[in-house]
Design a protein that fits this description.
Elements (H helix, E strand, L loop, with lengths): L1 E9 L2 E10 L5 E5 L6 H8 L7 E6 L2 E2 L8 E4 L11 H11 L4 H14 L15 H13 L5 E5 L7 H16 L3 E5 L3 H7 L2 E6 L2 E7 H7 L4 E6 L8 E9 L2 E8 L5 H8 L5 E6 L4 H11 L1
Parallel strand pairs: 3-8, 3-9, 6-7, 7-8
Antiparallel strand pairs: 1-2, 1-4, 4-5, 9-10, 11-13, 11-14, 12-13
Amino acid sequence: MEVNNVVKQYSSHLALDDVSLNVPKGTVYGLLGPNGAGKTTLIRIINCITAPDSGEIMLNGKKLSPADVRNIGYLPEERGLYKKMKVGEQAMYLARLKGMSKQDATTALKYWFEKFEIQEWWNKKVEELSKGMAQKVQFITTILHDPELLIFDEPFSGFDPVNTDLLKKEILALRDKGATIIFSTHNMESVEELCENISLINKSRIVLQGNVAEIRASYATESMLIQSSQPLSSTNCDIISQTQKNGLFEIILKKRIRISNNELLQELMPQAEISLFEQLLPTMNDIFISTVTEG
């Protein structure tokens, strides 16, 4: 999917200002940004809920049309189940809206309800569900019709760690089956786990874009994390911290001069046995805060 130079203005508020991005097929793509940055507006345009003032969305090389919505699965941040309906009826209703036959929907729903261990809730009302249970139902109805493009907006909201891990595995499994996934979240740890590429929107514009690993590497400092059997000293580095844990010394040092990692190891290895030696990379959370704050 390609977003090309999209602009969207609401009265006196410019929601999207010349936004472009390219989501490769069969990948998980992170759409990041602080509240009010423009992410939801872009998602609404992709879902044909609203239209851009200028620019275009391309899907598989063709301009996006309302007919393409059947090939999109959208899990919004704002939950939208009808509280008085029974869970099974609600799930069936949403499946039929996506064009599934009753027989196909019944078979698929039975499979997913059993997989997510919620089959006993079929005949209970939606209002009886916990937030996490309701989220499972919405996740199922989002993916049930095997859409080629999936959009998840804060999909782990309301989940405990066990169910969050379950959902992450399912998202990666969908990717491996060929689905293209846009993943919008404030949880930067999940971004590092799931996303190959990201776009960070701030104040209606793209301010950071690219491969997650390459972005982290580009923000790297000359700091190293080392574990050793003895305290260390260096003529080429400043020792930032040196603490002892479980019989090992954990040391953070920063290179003072341009020196290769091999040269640094040659200096340190005669002093002690080195069990860990790695460059400290900033987290996506650090980069997010730094980029948005500077912006």
